[in-house]
Structures are given as structure tokens and as C-alpha cells.
Amino acid sequence: QVQLVESGGGLVQPGGSLRLSCAASGSIFSVVAMGWYRQAPGKERELVAAISSGGITNYADYVKGRFTISRDNAKNTMYLQMNNMKPEDTAVYYCNMNWGRARFDSWGQGTQVIVSS
Question: In 25-76, where do the E strands start and end?
Fold first, then answer.
């Protein structure tokens, strides 16, 4: 059983920045690939960015050059730095394992991000 807690969301103007954090319980965090996901109203949850246990990253096309995923395995924490934000980034952001089809059993509550002027 892994507990995931997302934080750092809020209201930001277009062009602004936010830094999201994902705190995970358990020693397994340091040895699994992780990802940030988001879900906008009326849409399916989608993978935004991924990071391997060793720090290799991958991004959805629509966030490349704007978002940066990182992790601190010693702190069991993952981050998503979001810059140059756009209204279409508005969503609830979640973190979870990203290893093939495998995910931790329970998703966290997510953190709400609203980009609006």
C-alpha cells in the first residue's frame, strides 16, 4: 500500500508558473518509474510527464519546453515545475507509478490547477 499526496496547485495567470509536489510513502518509490497525470473536466486522465528511477524523463508534446519533471528519491518526492502556463493546462494533477500498465492501487486526491486571467 502506497500513499500519494499531491500539493502545490492553485490559481495562476497565463504565462505564470507553479511547482507541484508528490509525496509518496514506502521505500519502493526510489526504484520505480513515476509520472504526472492530469484530468480536465469531461476528459480522460492523461500522462503529462514521466521519469525513471534513474532520472530519465519524457514529456507529452504539449508541455515540452514548458514543464520539467524531477524527483528526489531520498525524500520520496517528485516534482513538476510548470512554466509559461496556458489555460488548457487547467486540470487536476495526479502522480502515480508509470511502469508499463502498472500503477499503485490508490490514486491520491490530486491538486487542482487553474490557469485563468
Answer: 34-39, 46-51, 57-59, 67-72
**43: burial class by Cβ within 10 Å (0-12, 13-18, 19+)?**
exposed
Query: How far lies 12's CA from each of 59, 114, 117, in Å?
Result: 22, 6, 8
| Mean pLDDT lowest among 15-24, 55-64, 75-84, 102-111 | 102-111
Show the cell assigned to 100: 508499463
Rounded distance between C-alpha atoms, residue 96 and residue 108, angstroms:
8
C-alpha cell at 82: 510548470
Contacts of residue 42, Cβ cutoff 8 Å, sequence gap at least 6: none
Q: What are phi and psi of 87, to 5 degrees?
A: -55, -35
What is the C-alpha to C-alpha distance for residues 91 and 30, in angstroms, rounded to an integer?
Answer: 27
